[in-house]
Amino acid sequence: MTHARFPETFLWGGATAANQIEGAYAEGGKGLSIQDVTPQGIMCDRVAGPTADNLKLEAIDFYHRYAEDIALFAEMGFTVFRFSIAWSRIFPLGDEDVPNEEGLAFYDRVLDELERYGIEPLVTLSHYETPLHLAEKYDGWVNRDLIGFYERYARTCFERYGHRVKHWLTFNEINSVLHIPFGSGGINTPKSELSEQDLYQAIHHELVASARVTRAAHEIDPSIKVGCMVIAMPLYPLTPNPDDVVAVMDADHANLMFSDVHVRGEYPGYAKRFFRDKGISLDITAQDLEDLRHTVDFVSFSYYMSLCQSADPEALAGAGNIMGGVRNPTLRESEWGWQIDPQGLRVVLNQFWDRWQKPLFIVENGLGAKDRLIEVDGELTVEDDYRIDYLNDHLLQVAEALEDGVDVLGYTMWGPIDLVSASTAQMSKRYGFIYVDRADDGSGTLTRHRKKSFGWYADVIRSRGGSLAVKETAAV
User: Distance from CA of residue 429 to its chain's centroid?
Assistant: First the structure.
């Protein structure tokens, strides 16, 4: 590849989550979510209630500053903005019959601003923010009742916003429930006490709910497109030993099962064998099987890193990150230990396209780093060339995948404005093109400043990728 050029229809933008940007956790009739009791991040234990050290309670105050932030996104030339609706803003407890009008009206205003600038919304219905009441009273998705509560919530959103929002995602990184059952599935039972039977029953309930609301969206407005959303993490054998190759296959199956069901409408044979071998007997009704046949229109995913896999227990002792695995000795790492592998994005795009032949949407990809605010020509900014290099190299691999014939709908970088990190609940783990003046201790003015990468991304969008720096090592 001597240059990168993306299709005119390619959607460019950024991605966020309500619990990481909105703040205003107790305003507008909002109820508590599971995020309000996890001040140290989704990987850590919950606490009894909201505490002053939880940065997510105020976050970056998007709830009051959304117009300013969307104007900045428009300045960069965004054609799409991914955000989530906080379930507990619409149904504060999660199991009510009547939605909260104040919550619905807030997202009307957000959509008004996006329409003002011609930015298409991409909306996630559930992004790690199950209403806390559903976790405490029902044990989250372990309980079948959540299917009905979620469908009521989703239908409310489709009926209110469906004429304005054409692309929806059902659950954020749904396969993460394997590793963070409380943060991802609202499962209140401690992970150490949660049986595999209950975990996979909860997964089944989520898959049925996702399919059921996909059908509901298509019934309400056939032009609506609904996608699943998963963590994509390509796995490489640590050695050529066939045992390591089989270990990769098994680990891939654990993650790919979620999308296989979403796309194919039934459990694959390897999942049925896994359940038999583990003695897991799921409660699957005839209606469940019918619901699952309502498949998604596209597959979306986050991509941050790849990992190696091994059958050697000693190698696994040095496991990687949230999805397990083994660190790749050939790759460098971010400041938070996430391995940087741009070519892995091309690998996973080809893998997903070959497997499902469904349009793909990269809805998260970015670099968390410790930025330093400096003054340049009288303006405060961040010289974040490391972020520019990271994104440049990943986007070049997207261009390679397009050349390979992969159908890619768009790219929403995570997160275009500094926000509270999901994994660590820090502000110092910054991703954005826009710096937000807030520190890990909660201090700061919340003033926004454009980073160097702000102008760089604007150039990439304006040139449809033509400004990307193509390197000799970029082509595979």
Answer: 17
